[in-house]
């Protein structure tokens, strides 16, 4: 169950399924999908008289199914946390009360057909209806039976959820506990994965796709998170208990989109479609968080232990010190020193937190080595962990190890995804046990929550009802953070965490990129005309490296490798901004000792210190080259390199540009040369050599003639 929320990202629809909504008997047998569109009410009170469930059933198999009917089954009141967890993970809870079967319309479905389910059951305990004896939390099963062709009657689909009851129908409501449990909710504002693939200085931001635009528009995932929270701001208690956890990378991305952006496609970059959506969403988010509690996630929800491996943690500050940027975009300063990281941290990451001024991390108890930890505990020098409530987390995030029996496989879409979370909160309020939780309940949904707006709003409204009835009391996160630590623990960074971390090949490539960037930075100076800080040129690339370690990549094989390849491409584009032009035509040397005209260009807005070298220069002797040249920002000019032709005719030479540290800049330029004369020095040496050859030859002839006469 370690890092439960991280394990169920992308399958949030299974949160309340025990067994889940889609049922099939076997891979080749009858298959029926059950989708619940409505459950009303979500919380049973003493004034509730009936329970209504509506939805659809779809024949997804290859056989006709007839005699389709549905009923509700209510199990016994759950009195322990273990019982609730058992229901959430798919174990049957039995049934104490069963409604009569009601036919589905139509009662017979051919493969691919869909029928309507609409069932209202009285809660008075009469024949064929349900009886709720007392307050508490109960398992409720929606049971669909049918008869497949060539088979007999059987349960073909079932959906189970937890039903909180604050007052048995017709009886007095539950008395609020004294004191009620304190509760606060983290509301995650984060993308499902990083989107930026290139963000050159003063250039257009490029996204890998345009999916984010649809998520920002009305009806999209991120719009739902903001709109649902805005809809309940008129409840002061509820607003008081919410704290918004934001990913600075998402804010940077949407801010860039609002200013115009491009989207990478197979045929080239095209304009993005979400400029207006980005502006509108940022305005809504700005309104939502004004004067409210805000905390940070790591930039791009980075894998901090992996990031700490890159050049001794040089990039950690870019993942952690983003409060000023959040304030710049949202107008709200995040809570200082507070971070909601994803998963357990190793000693290197904890040490980096100290250096970045982070004093508090939000963590799940499973991230720690003590299983019964709650509240605030010390996990290292000057760092403490404030733990989220694991039961509510399980309810909201879904359960691992769900039963996959003959009548249960995961559903295709979220049905009533917030239901188990509300039931777990009600349980913490004392329903079922009579005793409220003695420590604050910190509610943390999945950090990449993907739930329809109606479900999000329903969750918040139900939470508000528990506050209004004084079953819970709202506390701001700041009050929870102010509570003293209750002990010490250590982060449980296991072999499982190591295996799921950012691959070593990725962090090694990141280190290589960082080393190249450091050498490039050493060759940069502020240009007195442009007045641009060289660090600003490299800043987008540093954030790109942080995105390489996003924990979002864990669920997609090869995604981190693709991300770091994009970073390498972005670095190469930067290096190509300083280059040597290759002449369009061969160069004719006017004399054997004519200088070689080399045109260099610096398209960066900073001065660059460069070195010129000549290679593959057979036939040409270069003169003394300067150790380095200083190229002004944004300019190009010609450099005359002293050379001497060693022979007449055609030959070539390669001109390379690099930093003084040896990092290649631009592309090597191949010069085609044509010379009809030797250089002066070469000519003198050639004449001297020829004269010596003549003298030696004459001497040899003289000796032979003289020897012949003697003979």
Describe the protein.
By secondary structure, this protein is of the alpha+beta class. The protein is elongated. Helices cover 30% and strands 27% of the residues. It is built from 20 helices and 33 strands. Strand 14 (261-265) and strand 15 (268-271) form a beta hairpin. The chain starts with a helix and ends with a helix. 48% of the residues are buried. The longest helix is centred in the C-terminal third of the chain and has 31 residues, at 680-710. Among the domains are: 4-165, Immunoglobulins (Immunoglobulin-like); 578-678, Immunoglobulin-like. Mean pLDDT is 86; it is low at 1-28, 399-413 and 679-688. Helix 4 packs parallel to helix 7. The strands form eight sheets. Strands 23, 25, 27, 29, 32 and 33 form a six-stranded mixed β-sheet that branches. Strands 4, 5, 6, 8 and 9 form a five-stranded antiparallel β-sheet that branches. Strands 10, 13, 16, 21 and 22 form a five-stranded parallel β-sheet that branches.
Rg: 36 Å
Under the CATH scheme, the architecture of the domain at 4-165 is: Sandwich
The DSSP helix count reads 20
What is the assigned CATH homologous superfamily of the domain at 4-165? Answer: Immunoglobulins
Strand tally, please?
Answer: 33
CATH-defined fold name of the domain at 4-165: Immunoglobulin-like
Regions with little confidence, pLDDT below 50 for 5+ residues: 1-28, 399-413, 679-688
CATH class of the domain at 4-165: Mainly Beta
Strand content: 25-35%
Give helix % range.
25-40%
Shape: elongated
